[in-house]
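Whiteboard transcription, Tuesday session. T.W. wrote the structure tokens on the left side:
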């Protein structure tokens, strides 16, 4: 026997799982159902008049994608080792400027709805958001306190009570829907998304911000 081969041992639980295909098939089924849920939500959001939100214009130096009315659903297997699904709508991702609402499912954690603003879009929409702090807080939104703007999970280290966070080019507000509310998740996610869209609507923009 070649002694150079490493001996790979499995725990009793790992051995049980590696011999049982049912759990991975169940996981695949759950992820596909989340994808279907997000597809239905994207259609409901479009039907609800998302186009009425004034599309912010990309700054010439920001790069990235232009404002779009097309939602994007993505999925993966390894956000910190866990499967995930996300729906971005609306979505503008530039190097310096970001304008997006993200619905996110993270296995083992929760669903969430997150508003991500950066650069010129943060400057443009912040007055409307500040005017609705109380309503956003009552709906369950928290503000990101993490150093990394691409952290998605809700923990005591990543999100806290709504407050102005100064000195950053970006702002993230996020509300979670626990997995124990699975049956009501579509309605809850839709309501949270609708609140953000309503706050960002043309009627809430100042003349200065709309130029």
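and on the right, the sequence the group agreed on:
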């Amino acid at each position: 026997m070649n002694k150079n081969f490493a001996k790979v041992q499995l725990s009793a639980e790992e051995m049980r799982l590696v011999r049982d295909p049912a759990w991975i098939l169940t996981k695949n089924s759950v992820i596909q159902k989340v994808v279907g849920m997000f597809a239905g939500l994207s259609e409901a959001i479009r039907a609800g008049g998302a186009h009425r939100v004034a599309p912010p214009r990309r700054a010439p130096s920001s790069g990235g994608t232009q404002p779009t009315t097309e939602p994007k659903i993505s999925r993966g297997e390894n956000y910190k080792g866990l499967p995930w699904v996300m729906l971005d709508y609306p979505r503008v991702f530039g190097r310096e400027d970001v304008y997006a609402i993200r619905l996110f499912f993270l296995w083992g954690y929760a669903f969430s709805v997150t508003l991500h603003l950066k650069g010129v879009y943060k400057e443009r929409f912040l007055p409307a958001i500040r005017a609705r702090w109380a309503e956003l807080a009552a709906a369950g939104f928290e503000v990101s306190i993490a150093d990394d703007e691409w952290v998605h999970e809700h923990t005591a280290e990543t999100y806290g009570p709504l407050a102005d966070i100064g000195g950053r080019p970006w702002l993230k507000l996020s509300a979670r829907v626990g997995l124990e509310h699975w049956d009501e998740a579509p309605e809850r996610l839709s309501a949270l998304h609708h609140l953000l869209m309503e706050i960002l609507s043309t009627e809430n923009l100042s003349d200065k911000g709309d130029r």
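Someone added at the bottom: The first strand starts at residue 72 and ends at 79.
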